[in-house]
Specification:
The protein is mostly helical. It has 26 helices and 4 strands. The structure holds L-captopril (X8Z) and zinc ion.
Length: 631
């Protein structure tokens, strides 16, 4: 039974709709200057029939829009897929050409005019129609046809930035006079996880940061081009445009993120104090009394801290398993909940593994999920090696894939084949990842060593708090990343101060410091994080997705499974599957706040996440007794 009242004081700040984005003055000026000339286009006839009702006009407009947009969108997705799975000048060029072709039509000046005119009469339109028009409005601001030069320059700069990033070769100095090596991102991550010599660790960490320098100028240029697009449609900057998809302002989003950080900060401080002593013991040196040096941590950005808990070696059961096992076992979990098996084309078209030599093909090393045609062509890009991190990531990516599959049905218009919001999309796979990390399930499928099975439950909880999207992750996602991008697009960071601004945030939110001063011209540490380049101004999606994950998990455990949220088993439970499909299958046709409330009985809240880790806080306080807390 869900006994929590519908609205509790622990809910994060209530949301009010963001101010309408339409800058009437700018729009009318453009119209007067003759910029908004209707040419032959998808919208040309839709408002012509004065006798039609506004609703009928809108429907006609949407029909024409979708008919033109969908094939072009599919062609662009195909071109982008080729560009990220096989970086080449030809694929980059093709991607730019497809993007321009799409933009010319879907963000044409007359589309802008018609969408704005229709939205001015929103009270005459049904909810589903308004939602679709809103999606077009936001899409238009990505590439307004009124600024053709900017749109072209941006498409080229985006493609170039991705190509620079995805083709980057890491170089690791041996430190012993021998020739440097060229490890993959996976190799570097494995070294950060296992090496205990601090000099070697620093070399590895620094080599992971070398990618930032070549991306610096492109990022600055992209900031300006992205801002110009968004501002042309009345948004204060590009960050505000991305946040508008939640119906929120930048200030509301930052306040929401800050309150989630504040709610979990006492536990983060305890974890931080415990981790710096644990790491100091591992490296046989003194524990810092303040910030943790970045190269001490087992992740390039300190966004999670896996492998610190003794007796909880989650990688052991994966050693020696075939790499195909990772995705197939994740698929079995979804299928056990009543989701369909993945289409055959998923396995034929996805790119799931690192490139095997002798091939020299370059591909993006970060995981992603793709909905190529907004129907049943679903694919994933990964670089799976059999370990626990890729196991969690595979569940995350299949979460996106099963979301795509669930809302690809005739009742959901193509324009609304998206998550209730982007955080929902990120949260679903993480939810199943959290469920697949529970000991009863791991034991059932033979993924629990006897040692881990015997470990104190609090040790398991500790590992969950440190790893994945959880307590350690929040200050990075909701703090460092979100604040950096908000400030960056708002013009609050000077071009010559990117590293200074980045490390100030890392220091204050995460309590982490670089091993030495970071030079400004040759390095750009923010740009080492792929999302800053190719998924801009959206990282709060993961922070809010983390809250959504714990909120839904808590609800499932309490009201469907009647099991302890920290030791439960979803596997094979059809009722859990039905519950999930009910809200996944509506896509973006419903207001996300209402949907979350109907689904879990509460608005967005960090409380279920804090409650999940409650036993850990008491344990850490005892462990840290007498030691400094904070930085
Ligand atoms: O980027 C991702 C996914 C793809 S949507 C693998 N994640 C964030 C990251 O790696 O930084 C998942 C958790 C956070
Ligand atoms: Zn994701």
């Amino acid at each position: 039974m869900d006994d929590r009242p519908a609205s509790t004081s622990s809910e994060l700040s209530p949301l009010t709709p963001a101010a309408p984005f339409v800058d009437r003055r700018r729009f009318l000026q453009a119209a007067a200057a003759g910029v908004l000339v209707a040419g032959p286009s998808i919208a040309a006839n839709s408002l012509a029939q004065a006798t039609d009702s506004t609703q009928a006009q809108a429907e006609k407009f949407l029909k024409g829009y979708v008919e033109t947009w969908l094939p072009l969108e599919k062609a662009l997705n195909e071109a982008q897929w080729k560009a990220v799975t096989d970086v080449s000048a030809e694929h980059t060029c093709d991607q730019v050409a497809r993007a321009l072709e799409l933009n010319r039509v879907v963000a044409a000046p007359d589309v802008i005019t018609q969408v704005q005119l229709l939205l001015q009469q929103r009270e005459k339109l049904d909810d589903l129609t308004v939602r679709q028009l809103e999606k077009i409005r936001l899409r238009v601001a990505e590439a307004p046809g009124t600024l053709p030069e900017v749109v072209k320059a941006r498409a080229e700069a985006e493609a170039q930035q991705s190509a620079t990033q995805d083709s980057f070769t890491y170089t690791l100095d041996s430190g012993s006079g021998q020739a440097p090596t060229h490890p993959s991102a996976n190799d570097l991550d494995a070294m950060l996880l296992s090496q205990i010599d601090l000099t070697s660790r620093r070399r590895v960490w620094e080599s992971t940061k070398a990618i930032g320098g070549p991306l610096r100028d492109g990022l600055l240029r992209l900031r300006d081009l992205r801002n110009q697009s968004a501002r042309a449609l009345g948004f204060s900057d590009y960050f505000a445009l991305q946040v508008a998809d939640y119906g929120m302002t930048t200030e509301q989003m930052l306040a929401l993120c800050d309150s989630a950080i504040a709610e979990t900060k006492p536990l983060y401080e305890q974890l931080h104090a415990w981790a710096r002593r644990t790491l100091a013991t591992r490296y046989q040196t003194d524990a810092p009394s303040g910030k943790i040096p970045a190269h001490w941590l087992p992740n390039r950005w300190g966004q999670n801290w896996p492998g610190l808990v003794q007796g909880v070696d989650m990688d052991a059961p994966f050693r020696g398993k075939p790499r195909a096992y990772i995705t197939e076992q994740a698929e079995r979990f979804y299928v056990s909940l009543g989701f369909p098996p993945l289409p055959k084309s998923f396995y034929e078209r996805s790119d799931l593994y690192p490139v095997d030599p002798p091939s020299t093909r370059k591909k993006n090393s970060h995981a992603s999920a793709w909905h190529i045609d907004l129907k049943n062509d679903v694919r994933s890009l990964m670089s799976i090696v059999p370990d626990s991190r890729w196991f969690t990531t595979a569940h995350h990516e299949l979460g996106h894939i099963y979301y795509y599959i669930s809302y690809s049905r005739p009742e959901v218009p193509y324009l609304l084949r998206a998550g209730a919001n982007r955080a929902f999309h990120e949260g679903i796979g993480d939810l199943i990842g959290l469920a697949a990390g529970q000991r009863p399930y791991l034991k059932q499928v033979g993924l629990l060593t006897p040692e881990a099975e015997a470990a104190d439950p609090v040790k398991f909880l500790l590992d969950t708090a440190l790893d994945g999207a959880s307590i350690v992750f929040l200050p990075f996602a909701a703090g460092t990343m979100t604040r950096f991008e908000a400030d960056f697009y708002a013009g609050k960071i000077e071009d010559g101060q990117l590293n200074v601004a980045w490390w100030k945030l890392v220091g204050s939110y995460q309590g982490i410091e670089p091993p030495a001063e970071r030079l400004e011209q040759s390095l750009c540490d923010a740009a080492t994080k792929t999302h800053i380049n190719d998924d801009p101004a959206q990282y709060y999606d993961y922070a809010l997705g983390t809250l959504v994950k714990f909120q839904i998990h808590d609800h499932i455990c309490r009201t469907i499974l009647h099991q302890d949220p920290r030791a439960c088993n979803y596997f094979g439970n059809a009722q859990v599957g039905e519950f999930l499909r009910e809200f996944l299958s509506v896509g973006a046709t419903r207001d996300w706040n209402t949907l979350l409330r109907e689904t879990t009985g509460s608005g967005l809240s960090a409380q279920p996440m804090a409650a999940y880790f409650e036993p850990l806080t008491a344990w850490l306080r005892t462990q840290n007794d007498g030691h400094p807390i904070g930085w």
